[in-house]
């Protein structure tokens, strides 16, 4: 059992969990997160309720040019074969300078489920959403402007098989550490009790 999971089982505060993760290399963080169960991720999401609030620049750091993607390596708690539980969320600043991010999901399932485009926004001003996390990844919306070169074509989440996965869904994000965040999935306003971790890749990744 990793130190991270041991501390989760002991009910350690989020500051201690962040300290452990911040002391690891990127690959070590990914390895530690890859061992988390659904129950572990649920506990991490609850603990992260006491962490400092996320801002958009957590996902796309200050100084990143517009329409340049920042990759966050993810692992979810869905009941899928292990290789299909790993994915990336890719984020980029839009050209219009608005306080939001464009993004989509990359992984083994994209060829048949679709890219799952989204817009990420602060939840400030919506008290119910703020309780869930300071940033929402909103699949009700898709990018309405240019996206980074090399991204797939933008399609609505109501199109094709992705409608069963992304349509009508929002993910609410909380900070875990300097590189790691955790999300909770909602269908409409109903919690799905499914979670996922994200780990921001190094700037050269």
Task: Walk me through this protein's architecture.
- The chain is of the alpha+beta class and about 200 residues long.
- It has a single domain (about 55-200), classed as Porin (Beta Barrel).
- About 25% of the residues lie in helices and about 25% in strands.
- The relative contact order is 0.19.
- The mean pLDDT is about 95.
Topology of this protein?
Elements: H1 3-9, H2 14-22, H3 26-34, H4 38-47, H5 56-59, E1 70-76, E2 86-92, E3 101-107, H6 110-113, E4 118-122, H7 127-132, E5 135-138, E6 169-175, E7 180-187, E8 190-200
Antiparallel strand pairs: 1-2, 1-8, 2-3, 3-4, 4-5, 5-6, 6-7, 7-8
Helix pairs in contact: 1-2
Widest sheet: strand order?
A: 1-2-3-4-5-6-7-8
Biggest sheet character: 8 strands, antiparallel, barrel
> By helix and strand content, what is the structural category?
alpha+beta
Based on CA inertia axes, which overall geometry fits? globular
How many distinct helices?
A: 7
Mean pLDDT: 93
**Total domain modules:** 1
Rg of Cα set: 16 Å
CATH class annotation: Mainly Beta
What's the quick description here?
Helices cover 24% and strands 27% of the residues. It is α+β, with helices and mostly antiparallel strands.
């Amino acid at each position: 059992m990793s130190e991270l999971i041991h501390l989760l089982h002991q009910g350690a505060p989020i500051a201690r969990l962040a300290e452990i993760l911040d002391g690891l290399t990127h690959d070590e963080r990914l390895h530690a997160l890859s061992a988390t169960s659904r129950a572990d991720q649920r506990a991490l999401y609850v603990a992260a309720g006491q962490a400092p609030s996320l801002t958009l620049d957590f996902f796309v750091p200050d100084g990143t040019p517009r329409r340049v993607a920042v990759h966050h390596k993810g692992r979810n708690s869905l009941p899928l074969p292990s290789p299909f539980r790993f994915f990336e969320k890719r984020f980029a600043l839009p050209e219009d300078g608005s306080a939001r991010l464009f993004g989509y999901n990359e992984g083994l399932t994209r060829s048949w489920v679709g890219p799952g485009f989204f817009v990420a926004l602060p939840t400030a001003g919506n008290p119910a959403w703020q309780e869930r996390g300071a940033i929402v990844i909103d699949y009700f919306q898709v990018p309405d402007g240019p996206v980074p070169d090399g991204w797939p074509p933008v399609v609505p989440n109501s199109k094709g098989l992705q409608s069963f996965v992304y349509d009508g869904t929002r993910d609410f994000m909380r900070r875990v550490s300097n590189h790691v965040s955790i999300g909770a999935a909602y269908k409409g306003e109903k919690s799905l009790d499914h979670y996922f971790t994200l780990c921001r890749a190094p700037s050269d990744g």
